[in-house]
Amino acid sequence: MKLLMLGGTEFVGRAITEDALDRGWEVTVFHRGHHAPPPGTSALHGDRTAPGGLAALAEGEWDLVVDTWGGAPTAVRDSARLLAEQAGGYVYISSRSVYAYPAPAGLAEDGPLVEGSPDADSTAYAEDKRGSELAALDAFGERALLVRPGLIIGPYENVGRLPWWLDRVARGGPLLAPGPRELPLQYIDVRDLARWTLDASEDKRGGAFNLVSPTGHATMGSLLDACAAATGTALDPRWTDAAVIQEAGIEPWTELPIWLPEGEMHDHMFGGDVTKALEAGLTCRPIEETVADTWAWLRSIGGVAPQRPDRPRKGISAEREAALLGL
Predict the structure, then answer these.
(1) How far apart are the C-alpha atoms of 206 and 290, rounded to whole Å?
(2) pTM of this prediction?
(3) Are strands 184-185 and 218-219 parallel, antiparallel or unpaired?
(4) 54 near 82, Cβ under 8 Å?
(5) pLDDT given for residue 90 in this prediction
């Protein structure tokens, strides 16, 4: 298989690139040149947002294109149109954010979606992702595979969610643990995403798939236990009711990464129906493996995770945490 990876140097793109290389595929990485692509790839350079930025793709043929773009849909539109006659299939890594809010628990791929246009400039994340889906479909039709993950964690994470919890647990001491302990989570390890995506592409699958674990594959409790085991830290969790946290003005998802209180937001993010993906071969590794491997990766790069410049840093300050715990 010959893969053209649009991106491929960070997090999701890198995981997909490395999985393809492990399969013995021939991988070409198209990127701006800001980060080194994985060893074993061929590189083409260009800026999708600049006039003439796709010139390096004018020649060449590939069995598959994988695109992780998260900005203006016009970039996917232009890339997909250019490659429609040069590639066998097009995978767009979208997001479950394309579902209209609030999405009830148990929503499948045929649920209501936000509005989007392939001809739009960047507006908001959900609309950008939906417009990009439409751009891929317009150019590739049934040859387009739309992968809709939710929360993505694992090695190479450059958003700061799981790395923050690992660093916080490793620091020790009383820990603000957002409750309840049994709160179900739904996420995907980036390597499971990569494996399923390439398997599905080999099987010539098309259309949209929710790609996250079954809800409850992990809980807040099992996540924090896994962080303690990976870091070798004695966990001292102070489980705190969601109402107390919110009354203190502490923001779910940002100040307490991954966590969302029970209710509308939780159902929207952690309640997707993944029957279709499971029937198409999705398997999800245990949370303990994801956490341990992420901690090993963090240590291998000096303990400081990379941070995407377009995403705010995550995590509550030590002072705000201590104040809530009365320390």
Answers:
(1) 28
(2) 0.96
(3) antiparallel
(4) yes
(5) 98
